[in-house]
Protein backbone atom coordinates (compact mmCIF):
# COMPACT_ATOMS: atom_id res chain seq x y z
CA UNK A 1 0.00 0.00 0.00
CA UNK A 2 2.85 2.36 0.84
CA UNK A 3 4.34 1.88 -2.63
CA UNK A 4 1.11 2.80 -4.39
CA UNK A 5 0.61 5.77 -2.09
CA UNK A 6 4.07 7.09 -2.99
CA UNK A 7 3.38 6.59 -6.69
CA UNK A 8 0.10 8.44 -6.30
CA UNK A 9 1.75 11.24 -4.39
CA UNK A 10 4.31 11.77 -7.15
CA UNK A 11 1.57 11.98 -9.78
CA UNK A 12 -0.41 14.65 -7.98
CA UNK A 13 -0.26 18.27 -9.00
CA UNK A 14 -0.89 20.28 -5.90
CA UNK A 15 -0.77 23.76 -4.51
CA UNK A 16 -0.38 24.68 -0.88
CA UNK A 17 -1.87 27.73 0.68
CA UNK A 18 0.24 30.91 0.23
CA UNK A 19 3.46 30.91 2.17
CA UNK A 20 4.06 27.15 2.12
CA UNK A 21 6.34 24.76 0.29
CA UNK A 22 5.33 23.35 -3.11
CA UNK A 23 6.98 19.94 -2.92
CA UNK A 24 5.73 16.81 -1.23
CA UNK A 25 8.71 14.61 -2.06
CA UNK A 26 8.09 10.91 -1.57
CA UNK A 27 6.00 11.04 1.59
CA UNK A 28 2.82 8.98 1.66
CA UNK A 29 -0.48 10.56 0.70
CA UNK A 30 -1.94 9.72 4.10
CA UNK A 31 0.84 11.68 5.76
CA UNK A 32 0.07 14.92 3.95
CA UNK A 33 -0.86 17.49 6.63
CA UNK A 34 -4.55 18.20 6.69
CA UNK A 35 -3.92 21.93 6.42
CA UNK A 36 -2.56 21.58 2.88
CA UNK A 37 -4.96 21.73 -0.01
CA UNK A 38 -4.55 19.55 -3.10
CA UNK A 39 -5.67 21.06 -6.39
CA UNK A 40 -5.73 19.59 -9.89
CA UNK A 41 -6.11 16.12 -8.43
CA UNK A 42 -5.85 13.53 -11.21
CA UNK A 43 -6.28 10.37 -9.15
CA UNK A 44 -7.80 9.04 -5.94
CA UNK A 45 -6.79 6.13 -3.75
CA UNK A 46 -9.46 3.63 -2.67
CA UNK A 47 -8.66 2.33 0.82
CA UNK A 48 -10.72 -0.84 0.35
CA UNK A 49 -11.97 -3.04 3.18
CA UNK A 50 -8.67 -4.18 4.65
CA UNK A 51 -4.90 -3.65 4.37
CA UNK A 52 -4.15 -7.16 5.59
CA UNK A 53 -2.30 -8.94 2.76
CA UNK A 54 -3.44 -12.36 3.98
CA UNK A 55 -7.11 -11.34 3.70
CA UNK A 56 -6.88 -10.12 0.10
CA UNK A 57 -7.21 -13.58 -1.58
CA UNK A 58 -10.17 -14.40 0.68
CA UNK A 59 -11.85 -11.08 -0.13
CA UNK A 60 -11.24 -11.62 -3.83
CA UNK A 61 -12.82 -15.10 -3.81
CA UNK A 62 -15.71 -13.95 -1.60
CA UNK A 63 -16.67 -10.95 -3.72
CA UNK A 64 -16.13 -12.80 -6.99
CA UNK A 65 -18.46 -15.55 -5.76
CA UNK A 66 -21.13 -13.05 -4.70
CA UNK A 67 -20.83 -11.21 -8.00
CA UNK A 68 -21.21 -14.39 -10.07
CA UNK A 69 -24.19 -15.54 -7.97
CA UNK A 70 -25.85 -12.11 -8.34
CA UNK A 71 -25.38 -11.91 -12.10
CA UNK A 72 -26.47 -15.51 -12.72
CA UNK A 73 -29.48 -15.20 -10.40
CA UNK A 74 -30.74 -12.04 -12.06
CA UNK A 75 -30.01 -13.42 -15.54
CA UNK A 76 -32.12 -16.47 -14.74
CA UNK A 77 -35.04 -14.23 -13.80
CA UNK A 78 -34.55 -12.21 -17.01
CA UNK A 79 -34.49 -15.41 -19.09
CA UNK A 80 -37.54 -16.78 -17.28
CA UNK A 81 -39.58 -13.63 -17.89
CA UNK A 82 -38.59 -13.31 -21.54
CA UNK A 83 -39.02 -17.01 -22.39
CA UNK A 84 -42.39 -17.65 -20.74
CA UNK A 85 -45.44 -15.92 -22.34
CA UNK A 86 -47.36 -16.38 -19.09
CA UNK A 87 -44.97 -13.92 -17.42
CA UNK A 88 -45.50 -11.15 -19.96
CA UNK A 89 -47.45 -9.08 -17.45
CA UNK A 90 -46.76 -5.68 -15.85
CA UNK A 91 -45.51 -7.19 -12.59
CA UNK A 92 -42.88 -9.33 -14.30
CA UNK A 93 -42.02 -6.53 -16.73
CA UNK A 94 -40.99 -4.43 -13.73
CA UNK A 95 -39.19 -7.42 -12.19
CA UNK A 96 -37.30 -7.82 -15.48
CA UNK A 97 -36.13 -4.20 -15.25
CA UNK A 98 -35.28 -4.56 -11.56
CA UNK A 99 -33.03 -7.53 -12.38
CA UNK A 100 -31.26 -5.50 -15.06
CA UNK A 101 -30.74 -2.65 -12.60
CA UNK A 102 -29.40 -5.01 -9.92
CA UNK A 103 -26.84 -6.38 -12.36
CA UNK A 104 -25.75 -2.86 -13.23
CA UNK A 105 -25.76 -1.82 -9.57
CA UNK A 106 -23.35 -4.51 -8.42
CA UNK A 107 -21.26 -4.28 -11.62
CA UNK A 108 -20.50 -0.65 -10.82
CA UNK A 109 -18.40 -1.46 -7.76
CA UNK A 110 -17.46 -5.13 -7.37
CA UNK A 111 -15.49 -5.77 -10.61
CA UNK A 112 -13.31 -2.73 -9.93
CA UNK A 113 -12.71 -3.95 -6.39
CA UNK A 114 -11.72 -7.43 -7.61
CA UNK A 115 -9.32 -5.97 -10.18
CA UNK A 116 -7.78 -3.73 -7.50
CA UNK A 117 -7.15 -6.73 -5.26
CA UNK A 118 -5.66 -8.79 -8.06
CA UNK A 119 -3.44 -6.01 -9.42
CA UNK A 120 -2.50 -4.65 -5.97
CA UNK A 121 -3.37 -1.22 -7.28
CA UNK A 122 -6.19 0.79 -5.71
CA UNK A 123 -5.65 3.96 -7.71
CA UNK A 124 -8.64 5.30 -9.67
CA UNK A 125 -8.52 8.30 -11.98
CA UNK A 126 -10.58 11.37 -11.21
CA UNK A 127 -12.68 10.81 -14.33
CA UNK A 128 -13.15 7.15 -13.44
CA UNK A 129 -14.16 8.06 -9.90
CA UNK A 130 -16.78 10.57 -11.09
CA UNK A 131 -18.09 8.06 -13.63
CA UNK A 132 -18.37 5.30 -11.02
CA UNK A 133 -20.10 7.66 -8.59
CA UNK A 134 -22.63 8.81 -11.21
CA UNK A 135 -23.48 5.29 -12.38
CA UNK A 136 -23.72 4.08 -8.78
CA UNK A 137 -26.22 6.81 -7.87
CA UNK A 138 -28.13 6.18 -11.12
CA UNK A 139 -28.67 2.49 -10.38
CA UNK A 140 -29.30 3.01 -6.66
CA UNK A 141 -32.00 5.60 -7.36
CA UNK A 142 -33.40 3.47 -10.19
CA UNK A 143 -33.68 0.54 -7.79
CA UNK A 144 -35.64 2.68 -5.37
CA UNK A 145 -37.94 4.09 -8.05
CA UNK A 146 -38.69 0.66 -9.52
CA UNK A 147 -39.63 -0.67 -6.09
CA UNK A 148 -42.12 2.19 -5.83
CA UNK A 149 -43.53 1.45 -9.27
CA UNK A 150 -43.88 -2.23 -8.34
CA UNK A 151 -45.73 -1.24 -5.17
CA UNK A 152 -48.15 0.80 -7.29
CA UNK A 153 -48.60 -2.21 -9.58
CA UNK A 154 -49.54 -4.40 -6.58
CA UNK A 155 -51.90 -1.68 -5.35
CA UNK A 156 -53.77 -1.63 -8.66
CA UNK A 157 -53.82 -5.45 -8.88
CA UNK A 158 -55.31 -5.90 -5.39
CA UNK A 159 -57.46 -2.80 -4.96
CA UNK A 160 -58.71 -2.50 -8.57
CA UNK A 161 -58.47 -6.03 -10.02
CA UNK A 162 -61.23 -5.53 -12.60
CA UNK A 163 -59.48 -2.49 -14.09
CA UNK A 164 -55.94 -3.81 -13.73
CA UNK A 165 -55.40 -4.63 -17.41
CA UNK A 166 -56.81 -1.28 -18.50
CA UNK A 167 -54.85 0.80 -15.98
CA UNK A 168 -51.52 -1.04 -16.24
CA UNK A 169 -51.36 -0.98 -20.02
CA UNK A 170 -48.03 -1.38 -21.84
CA UNK A 171 -47.79 2.35 -22.55
CA UNK A 172 -48.12 3.26 -18.87
CA UNK A 173 -45.64 0.55 -17.82
CA UNK A 174 -43.00 1.78 -20.26
CA UNK A 175 -43.67 5.37 -19.20
CA UNK A 176 -43.20 4.53 -15.52
CA UNK A 177 -39.85 2.85 -16.24
CA UNK A 178 -38.77 5.80 -18.41
CA UNK A 179 -39.73 8.32 -15.73
CA UNK A 180 -37.83 6.28 -13.14
CA UNK A 181 -34.75 6.36 -15.35
CA UNK A 182 -35.02 10.12 -15.99
CA UNK A 183 -35.42 10.93 -12.28
CA UNK A 184 -32.47 8.68 -11.43
CA UNK A 185 -30.33 10.25 -14.16
CA UNK A 186 -31.19 13.73 -12.89
CA UNK A 187 -30.26 12.72 -9.34
CA UNK A 188 -26.90 11.29 -10.44
CA UNK A 189 -26.04 14.33 -12.56
CA UNK A 190 -26.86 16.74 -9.73
CA UNK A 191 -24.41 14.88 -7.47
CA UNK A 192 -21.88 14.84 -10.29
CA UNK A 193 -22.13 18.61 -10.75
CA UNK A 194 -21.73 19.16 -7.01
CA UNK A 195 -18.47 17.19 -6.96
CA UNK A 196 -17.22 18.93 -10.11
CA UNK A 197 -17.59 22.28 -8.35
CA UNK A 198 -15.09 21.25 -5.67
CA UNK A 199 -11.86 23.17 -6.25
CA UNK A 200 -9.53 21.40 -3.83
CA UNK A 201 -9.25 18.36 -1.59
CA UNK A 202 -7.73 17.80 1.85
CA UNK A 203 -6.68 14.29 0.91
CA UNK A 204 -6.98 11.79 -1.92
CA UNK A 205 -7.66 8.66 0.14
CA UNK A 206 -11.29 7.50 -0.08
CA UNK A 207 -12.18 5.34 2.93
CA UNK A 208 -14.21 2.85 0.93
CA UNK A 209 -13.91 0.30 -1.88
CA UNK A 210 -15.70 2.58 -4.35
CA UNK A 211 -16.17 6.29 -4.97
CA UNK A 212 -18.82 7.02 -2.39
CA UNK A 213 -20.29 10.52 -3.02
CA UNK A 214 -20.41 11.32 0.71
CA UNK A 215 -16.73 10.39 1.03
CA UNK A 216 -15.80 12.73 -1.82
CA UNK A 217 -17.66 15.62 -0.19
CA UNK A 218 -15.88 14.92 3.10
CA UNK A 219 -12.52 15.25 1.34
CA UNK A 220 -13.29 18.76 0.10
CA UNK A 221 -11.29 21.52 1.76
CA UNK A 222 -13.68 24.29 0.70
CA UNK A 223 -16.99 25.10 2.37
CA UNK A 224 -19.43 22.40 1.28
CA UNK A 225 -22.42 23.56 3.31
CA UNK A 226 -24.40 24.64 0.25
CA UNK A 227 -23.39 21.53 -1.68
CA UNK A 228 -24.42 19.33 1.23
CA UNK A 229 -27.78 21.08 1.47
CA UNK A 230 -28.43 20.58 -2.26
CA UNK A 231 -27.22 16.96 -2.18
CA UNK A 232 -29.27 15.98 0.86
CA UNK A 233 -32.33 17.86 -0.44
CA UNK A 234 -32.27 16.02 -3.77
CA UNK A 235 -31.66 12.71 -2.01
CA UNK A 236 -34.43 13.39 0.50
CA UNK A 237 -36.89 14.35 -2.23
CA UNK A 238 -36.31 11.20 -4.29
CA UNK A 239 -36.20 9.02 -1.18
CA UNK A 240 -39.31 10.64 0.29
CA UNK A 241 -41.26 10.22 -2.94
CA UNK A 242 -40.27 6.57 -3.20
CA UNK A 243 -40.98 5.69 0.43
CA UNK A 244 -44.22 7.69 0.45
CA UNK A 245 -45.44 5.89 -2.66
CA UNK A 246 -44.64 2.49 -1.16
CA UNK A 247 -46.26 3.30 2.20
CA UNK A 248 -49.39 4.70 0.54
CA UNK A 249 -49.70 1.68 -1.76
CA UNK A 250 -49.35 -0.83 1.06
CA UNK A 251 -51.71 1.13 3.27
CA UNK A 252 -54.39 0.84 0.59
CA UNK A 253 -53.47 -2.83 0.04
CA UNK A 254 -53.79 -3.57 3.76
CA UNK A 255 -57.17 -1.85 3.96
CA UNK A 256 -58.37 -3.80 0.94
CA UNK A 257 -57.09 -7.12 2.30
CA UNK A 258 -58.79 -6.58 5.67
CA UNK A 259 -62.10 -6.29 3.85
CA UNK A 260 -61.76 -9.79 2.41
CA UNK A 261 -64.15 -12.05 4.40
CA UNK A 262 -62.21 -15.33 4.23
CA UNK A 263 -58.76 -15.94 5.65
CA UNK A 264 -57.83 -17.89 2.52
CA UNK A 265 -58.66 -14.91 0.35
CA UNK A 266 -56.63 -12.63 2.59
CA UNK A 267 -53.61 -14.93 2.40
CA UNK A 268 -53.88 -15.22 -1.39
CA UNK A 269 -54.12 -11.45 -1.78
CA UNK A 270 -51.16 -10.81 0.50
CA UNK A 271 -49.08 -13.57 -1.10
CA UNK A 272 -49.07 -11.68 -4.40
CA UNK A 273 -47.03 -8.88 -2.84
CA UNK A 274 -45.05 -10.83 -0.23
CA UNK A 275 -41.87 -11.07 -2.33
CA UNK A 276 -41.94 -7.39 -3.18
CA UNK A 277 -42.48 -6.42 0.45
CA UNK A 278 -39.50 -8.59 1.47
CA UNK A 279 -37.27 -6.89 -1.13
CA UNK A 280 -38.45 -3.43 -0.01
CA UNK A 281 -37.63 -4.22 3.63
CA UNK A 282 -34.23 -5.59 2.62
CA UNK A 283 -33.36 -2.61 0.41
CA UNK A 284 -34.45 0.18 2.73
CA UNK A 285 -33.48 -1.73 5.88
CA UNK A 286 -29.87 -2.15 4.75
CA UNK A 287 -29.74 1.43 3.46
CA UNK A 288 -30.98 2.73 6.81
CA UNK A 289 -28.52 0.47 8.61
CA UNK A 290 -25.61 1.85 6.58
CA UNK A 291 -26.74 5.42 7.27
CA UNK A 292 -27.07 4.85 11.01
CA UNK A 293 -23.76 2.99 11.10
CA UNK A 294 -21.94 5.87 9.41
CA UNK A 295 -23.62 8.37 11.74
CA UNK A 296 -22.70 6.48 14.91
CA UNK A 297 -19.40 4.83 14.00
CA UNK A 298 -16.21 6.87 13.87
CA UNK A 299 -14.36 4.21 11.87
CA UNK A 300 -14.36 4.70 8.06
CA UNK A 301 -13.46 1.04 7.58
CA UNK A 302 -16.55 -0.07 9.51
CA UNK A 303 -18.65 2.23 7.33
CA UNK A 304 -17.14 0.63 4.22
CA UNK A 305 -17.87 -2.85 5.58
CA UNK A 306 -21.47 -1.84 6.33
CA UNK A 307 -21.92 -0.51 2.80
CA UNK A 308 -21.12 -3.99 1.45
CA UNK A 309 -24.52 -5.17 2.69
CA UNK A 310 -26.27 -2.39 0.78
CA UNK A 311 -24.25 -2.54 -2.44
CA UNK A 312 -23.53 -6.28 -2.76
CA UNK A 313 -25.71 -8.44 -0.51
CA UNK A 314 -29.04 -6.83 -1.42
CA UNK A 315 -28.74 -7.32 -5.23
CA UNK A 316 -27.56 -10.88 -4.56
CA UNK A 317 -30.56 -11.82 -2.40
CA UNK A 318 -33.26 -10.26 -4.61
CA UNK A 319 -33.34 -13.14 -7.15
CA UNK A 320 -33.58 -15.70 -4.36
CA UNK A 321 -36.47 -13.87 -2.72
CA UNK A 322 -38.45 -13.67 -5.96
CA UNK A 323 -37.64 -17.18 -7.17
CA UNK A 324 -38.17 -19.00 -3.86
CA UNK A 325 -41.42 -17.23 -2.99
CA UNK A 326 -42.90 -17.11 -6.48
CA UNK A 327 -44.37 -20.25 -8.03
CA UNK A 328 -44.70 -18.64 -11.47
CA UNK A 329 -40.97 -17.85 -11.58
CA UNK A 330 -40.06 -21.35 -10.41
CA UNK A 331 -42.30 -22.96 -13.01
CA UNK A 332 -40.90 -20.71 -15.75
CA UNK A 333 -37.32 -21.50 -14.72
CA UNK A 334 -38.08 -25.21 -14.64
CA UNK A 335 -39.63 -25.10 -18.13
CA UNK A 336 -36.69 -23.06 -19.40
CA UNK A 337 -34.15 -25.54 -18.02
CA UNK A 338 -36.09 -28.50 -19.45
CA UNK A 339 -36.31 -26.89 -22.89
CA UNK A 340 -32.61 -26.06 -22.78
CA UNK A 341 -31.63 -29.63 -21.88
CA UNK A 342 -33.93 -31.17 -24.49
CA UNK A 343 -32.54 -28.98 -27.25
Automatic annotation (TrEMBL):
CDD domains with a match to the protein in the record: 7tmA_OR7-like
PROSITE patterns reported for this sequence: G_PROTEIN_RECEP_F1_1, G_PROTEIN_RECEP_F1_2
Subcellular location(s) of the protein: Cell membrane; Membrane
Keyword list, A-Z: Cell membrane, G-protein coupled receptor, Membrane, Olfaction, Receptor, Sensory transduction, Transducer, Transmembrane, Transmembrane helix
G-protein coupled receptors family 1 profile domain segment(s): 73-322
Primary localization: membrane
A Pfam family per the record: 7tm_4
GO cellular component assignments: plasma membrane
Signal peptide coordinates: none
UniProt membrane topology term: Multi-pass membrane protein
Keyword Transmembrane helix listed: yes
Any one GO MF annotation of this record: olfactory receptor activity
InterPro entries: GPCR_Rhodpsn (IPR000276), GPCR_Rhodpsn_7TM (IPR017452), Olfact_rcpt (IPR000725)
Transmembrane segments: 55-79, 91-110, 130-152, 164-186, 229-248, 269-292, 304-324
Similarity annotation: Belongs to the G-protein coupled receptor 1 family.
Function: Putative odorant or sperm cell receptor.
Protein name: Olfactory receptor
Organism ancestry: Eukaryota, Metazoa, Chordata, Craniata, Vertebrata
Amino acid sequence: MATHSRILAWRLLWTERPGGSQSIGSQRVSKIPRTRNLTSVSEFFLMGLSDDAELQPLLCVLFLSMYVVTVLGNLLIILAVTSDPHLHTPMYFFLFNLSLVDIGFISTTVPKMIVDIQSHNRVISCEGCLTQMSIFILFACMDSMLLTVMAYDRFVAICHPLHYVVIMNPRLCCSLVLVSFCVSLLDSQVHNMIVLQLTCFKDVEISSFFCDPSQLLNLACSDTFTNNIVSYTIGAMTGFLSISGIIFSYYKILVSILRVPSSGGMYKAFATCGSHLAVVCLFYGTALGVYLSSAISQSPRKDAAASVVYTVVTPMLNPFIYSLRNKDIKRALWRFLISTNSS
